[in-house]
Design goal:
By secondary structure, the protein is α/β, with parallel strands linked by helices. 37% of the residues lie in helices and 17% in strands. The protein has a 6-stranded mixed β-sheet with strand order 1-2-10-7-8-9, with helices on both faces. Strands 5-4-3-6 form a 4-stranded parallel β-sheet, with helices on both faces. The chain is globular and about 55 Å long. Its cofactor is pyridoxal 5'-phosphate.
Length: 292
Amino acid sequence: MYKTIEHFIGHTPLVQLKRIPGKTSNIILAKLEGNNPAGSVKDRPAYSMIIRAQQRGDIQPGDTLIEATSGNTGIALAMSAAILGYHMILVMPENQSLERRQVMAAYGAKIILTENMEEARDVAGQLCEAGKGFILDQFSNPDNPLAHYEGTAPEIWQDTAGKITHFVSSMGTTGTIMGCARYFREKERKVEIVGVQPQEGAQIPGIRKWPEAYLPKIYQSELVDRILLVSQQEAEIMARRLASEEGVFAGISSGGALAAVLKLSAQVRNAVIVSIVCDRGDRYLSTGVFPS
């Protein structure tokens, strides 16, 4: 039997960073989620949300799906919809990079632009209420963190032989950190779960601090041991350093997560720290973050 593209979602590399950490007793590992077919960690929950809704009978091929997204989930959903035979409407803020929109359109998605992410979520809900399609709602859908509970976290556990001591993840929809935290809690309660949020005023794609009214319903604060804040400058500098010093071409949120890892690493010893590299840097070229 030959495999099709969905069979290559997950099982991404876990690599040790050698130069950026400097002299330290800690081992710092990066989970390269940009190696997924559509280029981000969101491939996992996107496919999970569609296929499980289909299995429950909520949707069937040929239906129209709706989702609010800042980019990566939309790209992953557009790919998954193309694989499984669905129409896709994506609602996203107009300030997201041009590359993201182009990739979504290439997969066949219809794109609706809004002023910000909160408005995108409202518009997606209105479209669903108007009967324009089925909303997947990554912010409240348990199939989002379930994909990481069943995939991302077990892969990390296996690749570290259960030696992981700290897990660091940027917080957006919070699906990644919620699914992984739940798994690690069940395996070994000594794994410290560290979330990454933006400092006041920072606009880092993929990292959010939601207003209370828009806090994702899948989020459980008790599963996160601590939250570290990163600035716009820290995230962008570290994204550039990842490429030039480690050969890992990643997005800005991945730079933010690694900036948080270095802050954490300065406070611990003999730790095995795993950070999620959410996506690839090529979808941020038009933002000017990387040198030309």
